[in-house]
Amino acid sequence: MWLNKKELGEKGEQLAVDFLIENGFEIIQRNYRYGHGEIDIIVKDPSDGITAFIEVKTRQNLDFGEPEYAITKNKQRQIKKMAELYLYDKQIEELDCRFDVIAVLLKDINNPSIKHYINAFM
Question: Into how many domains does the chain fold?
Answer without folding.
Answer: 1
